[in-house]
Amino acid sequence: MFINLCDTTGAALEHLGMALGWDPVQPRRFGGRTRDIDLNAAALLFAGTQIIDVVYHEQLSSRDGSVRHLGDSMTGEGKGDNEVVTVDLTRIPPQVDTILFLVTSYTGQSFDQIDNAFCRVIDSTSGTEIAHYNLSGGAHTGLVMGKVVRAANFWRFEPLGATIHAQHPVEAVPHMAPFLTTPQTSSDT
């Protein structure tokens, strides 16, 4: 089910965000080391089935600056959103027709080992939440949260909530094919 990215007046949204949050690992009661949990928020930009750009903790901005990662949290410390990816829909290159929002567990913990993990898509201008997922639970290490798809005069969001096994966005790329549209050829029109 697609959601048209429009505000209450029907105007197309211009700024979108994907936010990710989780609780840090609690110290063990009787000592022993605990391994921090490092989740990653990412945006993968595609033209048809061809990957064009990736924004994540190791590349904080798309080449054109339209998509930005606002900083890497390696522990989940702090309240609320720990990582945020922003998208300026007015600046997305014309060949990009799909943006996939992705969460991966960089340190390898499955989501059933992570407390109070969530991700959400928001209208960055108004703060209105468009979609929200509780991530805690399940034996997977990644989630394709949703996709933003270019329509005629606006963008649409489709919540996906598809689980994958990947610890890094680069490992996730081969899993993205089912969520992409194939480019149309002249015989398709």
From TrEMBL:
Domain TerD as annotated: residue spans: 11-164
CDD domains noted in UniProt: TerD_like
UniProt cross-references to InterPro entries, sorted A to Z: Stress/Tellurium_Resist, TerD
Protein name, per record: Tellurium resistance protein TerZ
Species of the source: Nocardia tenerifensis
Lineage: Bacteria, Bacillati, Actinomycetota, Actinomycetes, Mycobacteriales
